[in-house]
Amino acid sequence: MIKNEKSTNVIQSLQVGLNIIDIVATKNRPLKFTEIQELTGITKSNLYKYLNTLTMLDVLYRDKKDGTYSLGGKFIEYCAAALGDRNVIGKITPYLREISASTSQTALLAVWTHGGPVIVDIYSANYGLNIGAQVGTRLPLLSATGKVFAAFKDERDPQVKEWKQSELRKLTDERRKQLEEEIEGIRQRFFSYALEPLVKHVSSFSVPVLDFQRDLVAAVTVVGFTERIPKTADEQAGKYIMDCVAEISKSFGFLAD
């Protein structure tokens, strides 16, 4: 429910609009009009005006097929600018398109935020596939993307350390030990695989994008039906993805040993 506190020091309509954006962003899935109304308590007529304005400004996106709302391109552009990653997205987007078209799977790009890795771009060759995430979704540690960030993001950064510890607390002692061993292997192989981390029958393969200092810039991840996603870099699709991401890393100055 949106708070209705009045103050002479704030623009209430702007506050309401930002609260709507916050609700759409934090639900990690497209929302229907009725869901947004229930969560905000705004009258139908006023909510239509807010949603129409936010959609017109491309801060929210309305799917014409099912009428649901999700984060729009302009919002992601603002996020990228705040994170200093506008150039990252611009450089990697053409590769995402190519990977998605060549593998016939969904290709996504994730960058680091204070709360963990977040999806900032998606290209899908299979629009009927539910990958359990959308642009703006924070990805968990056990996802292929999450494991790449755990492996390559510097834990001396307090935010990275806090995120990893928070995620590890959700696991059993045995699973934590297994994961730490897996992460060490990811550092050596430069890719990770996750078996159905978010949605049944949907798995993922993720590769780090590194810069000239060997710092993690982003992660490129391919998501699709489990039987179509490579488990190793020895498979044809795995090798292709690895080669594409190696080219991306070269553009950021990374030199392989």
UniProtKB/TrEMBL annotation:
Record-annotated HTH iclR-type domain positions: 11-73
PROSITE patterns: HTH_ICLR, ICLR_ED
Keywords: DNA-binding, Transcription, Transcription regulation
Single GO MF descriptor: DNA binding
GO biological-process terms attached to the record: negative regulation of DNA-templated transcription
One Pfam match: IclR_C
Gene3D superfamilies reported in the protein's UniProt record: 3.30.450.40, Winged helix-like DNA-binding domain superfamily/Winged helix DNA-binding domain
Keyword presence, Transcription: yes
Domain IclR-ED: 74-254
Name the record gives this protein: IclR family transcriptional regulator
Organism of this sequence: Geobacillus genomosp. 3
